[in-house]
Amino acid sequence: MTATFEQAARSWTEHLRAGGSTPWSQWVVTGADDQVTVPPGWTAPGAAQLEFVRRAAALTEHGFPAGLADLVFGRSGPARGLAHLPLGWPGTMTPRPFGPPRTDPADVPGHELVRVGVGALTELLLRSPGQEPGEWRVRRRLLTRDPSFELAGAPVTVAAVRRALAVAGHVEGGHAPRVVLLAEPFDAGLAQVWSARAQRGAPARWRGFVARTAHRQGLPPSIDLPGLAGSWAPRVGRENVHVLVAPGSGATAARLAAEVLGLSLRNRLHGRRAPDAGPRVLDLTPAAVDVVRRVNAVLAVRATEQQQARATRTLSSLLVGVHGSPRDPLTVPRPFQDWARERGAWITDELRRGGYAVHGNLDRIVPAFEGVPVHPDRDTVLRLVLTACVRLASTGERLRTKERER
Q1: HEC assignment per residue over the chain
Q2: Model-level pTM greater than 0.85?
């Protein structure tokens, strides 16, 4: 006996709820159960919700987290997008007299799956204990023999260098410091500003952020290197302002900054505890920043300021190092590339005229553009949302199990 549509949909829904990942088109041929009982009035979840759960289940290696399927099945995606897409038989999607068409889950656009996932991810973050957003602090010792120094420039690079130095026992501050300005290619520095702002709760898309920056008269302070150098020079002397053109790696930038400052990166804490929290600005891939800013848009209307800060920190920490290198390149969209090139050239010329000590090639500040993506990879964004949902749901399940065992 052949299963009815309702029986096939019901049995597939239960298959996915239990952690199965068989595609709908395959299920209706080989897995549909004609003995399953369909509760009166039951309707299948939307095609987008079903497909998101199926893909999430395919990522799990140690069991699908209980409750994730029901969380996704019971929600629509936030913000604007397609209406609830009803499930339909593969290959025979007859038009409906009204409402959205019946849809094979395999045909749901990726951006709709991201939208569904962001809604579930936001809910999981709000349920999670989360991480406090406060930054670790290490005080400079009063009687230290270390030279006084200050760091400024591209925010992600500065955060990485600051932490590497702090772990080795070197902390900013002191009288008449030597100042190291960490410079990146202009487009990379701008992407770091976007990342830092997303990690502080901003919901801006990359293109919109670039457009707004291009139409402003000034630059974000952290990448306005001539402005930074000009503000420090009268206070510490032009000879104590150093421009370090970072080579694209946080570890290498830390090593070169230590050389400029005459410091060692060997641990000199002599038994004192090194900071165990990460830097305030984490080194995220462009796709990870895009996930964070999408969630920020929902948190802005769902959470208090404190809840949002904790959730954003938790998500950022979860996404570090997942699906790609943090230094994956990202450049500005094509309509803004002439502006970015001009800004990079202006920064380079101003720093040369300023007579500051330069370490590295200033010409690297002018962006190259060739072969560099102009927006975060959408497929990677979806994989990150799926991964984050599975990890958060699994963590919540383990915490609840521990609570029950106490």
Answers
A1: CCCCHHHHHHHHHHHHHCCCCCCHHHHHHHCCCCCCCCCCCCCCCCHHHHHHHHHHHHHCCCCCCCCHHHHHHCCCCCCCCCCCCCECCCCCCCCCCCCCCCECHHHCCHHHHHHHHHHHHHHHHHHCCCCCCCCCCCCCCCCCCCCCEEEEECHHHHHHHHHHHHHCCCCCECCCCEEEEEECCHHHHHHHHHHHHHHCCCCCCHHHHHHHHHCCCCCCHHHCHHHHHHHHHHHHCHHHEEEEECCCCHHHHHHHHHHHHCCCCCCCCCCCCCCCCCCCCCCCCHHHHHHHHHHHHHHHHHCCHHHHHHHHHHHHHHHCCCCCCCCCCCCCCHHHHHHHHHHHHHHHHHHHHHCCEEECCHHHHCCCCCCCCCCCCHHHHHHHHHHHHHHHHHHHHHHHHHHHHC
A2: yes
Which pair of structure tokens corresponds to residue 20? Answer: 């199965």
Look up residue 193 and give its two tokens.
């500003």
> What are the structure tokens assigned to 226, written together?
């001539």
Rg (CA), the chain: 26
Closest CA to 182 of 152, 156, 137, 140: 152
Structure tokens, 355: 């007579």
* Residue with token string 């007299």: 97
Q: With a cut of 70, which residues of the chain have pLDDT below it? A: 1, 79-83, 91-100, 130-144, 267-278, 324-326, 397-406
**pLDDT tens-digit series, residues 314-366:** 999 999 977 766 678 899 999 999 999 999 999 999 999 999 999 999 999 99
Measured CA to CA, the distance from residue 36 to residue 10 in angstroms comes to 8
